[in-house]
């Protein structure tokens, strides 16, 4: 019961702290030399707090002031680091540049993913109906061997296969087939060129040696070696 009350209280605190207007976010809570800590900065740091601490900061003026003092301390350390020129350290800048590129790549990948899904939803997904019982049965009859293999060699009845999600799988296959057909139609209207030499060069980079040093012996060679070892052992007896 206590945990539930804490969770409810914490949720109320979050609403109280994040439900403010954008204008209040720009309010300056503290000036630190030439820097400043705004309400937005304060609330952003609250994301890492446990619910109990979050509640304390919201309702206890002393806890709130102590939290602000911590942020002031962090800001002073950062200012001192910049004063000493550590922000211009080549290794640090190199690391930051790598992090920035990685973040930008993640954003681009997320945007591509959203675009991809948005178009498929518009053009295909809403037009594809869930498979009928007859379609599921037809798929079952046609792919009995595959279903058995997926079940670890066990024969499944149609009812058992359906209980394990056969209908959902058939629906996914319908979506996949529709996507492939749609992609094929787009490709037919597009101008696509493939650089086979570049592709082969890439393949050479992708193949990496699995071990270093001596190569592992094939089974036949291992057997021969064992025989030789046994002969040598018998000779010494």
Briefly characterize the structure:
By secondary structure, this protein is mainly alpha-helical. The protein contains twelve helices and two strands. It has a two-stranded antiparallel sheet.
- Helix/strand-derived class? mainly alpha
Helix fraction, binned, reads over 70%
Question: What percent of residues are in strands?
Answer: under 5%
Q: For the report, how would you describe the main beta sheet?
A: 2 strands, antiparallel
* Total number of beta strands: 2
Mean pLDDT: 82
Tell me the Rg in angstroms: 32 Å
Number of helices: 12
- Point out poorly predicted stretches: 1-20, 213-217
Number of domains: 3
Order of helices and strands: HHEEHHHHHHHHHH
Overall outline: extended
- Give the termini separation: 78 Å
The largest sheet has its strands arranged as: 1-2
What does this structure look like?
This protein is mainly alpha-helical. The chain folds into three domains: 86 residues, no CATH class; 35 residues; 65 residues, no CATH class. Helix content is 71%, strand content 4%. It is built from twelve helices and two strands; from the N terminus they run H-H-E-E-H-H-H-H-H-H-H-H-H-H. A two-stranded antiparallel ribbon has the order 1-2. It is extended and about 75 Å long. It starts with a helix and ends with a helix. 4% of the residues are buried. The N terminus is likely disordered.
